[in-house]
Specification:
CATH class: Few Secondary Structures
Structural class: alpha+beta
Number of domains: 1
Distance between the termini: 19 Å
Strand order of the largest sheet: 1-2-3
Largest sheet: 3 strands, antiparallel
Order of helices and strands: HEEHEH
Number of helices: 3
Number of strands: 3
Length: 66
């Protein structure tokens, strides 16, 4: 049986932490930043962690060797 291919779109958007959680970059920090509060922009810079249900789906389907 051949190797499974990683979905490249998912590999560019998600990464795994050392404990196996799925990490991603939060949205809404690309443009129209003047109307967003400084606190909101600062919190959007920190990485997000997917919920266990979503991370199971991402790890199984999109990142088979992650």
């Amino acid at each position: 049986m051949p190797k499974m291919k990683t979905k490249r779109a998912a590999a560019k958007r998600f990464s795994l932490t050392a404990s196996g959680k799925v990490k991603y970059k939060k949205m809404n920090l690309r443009h129209i930043l003047t109307k967003k509060a400084q606190k909101r922009k600062r919190q959007l810079r920190s990485p997000g962690i997917l919920s266990p249900a979503d991370s199971a789906k991402v790890r199984k389907q999109l990142l088979p060797y992650g």
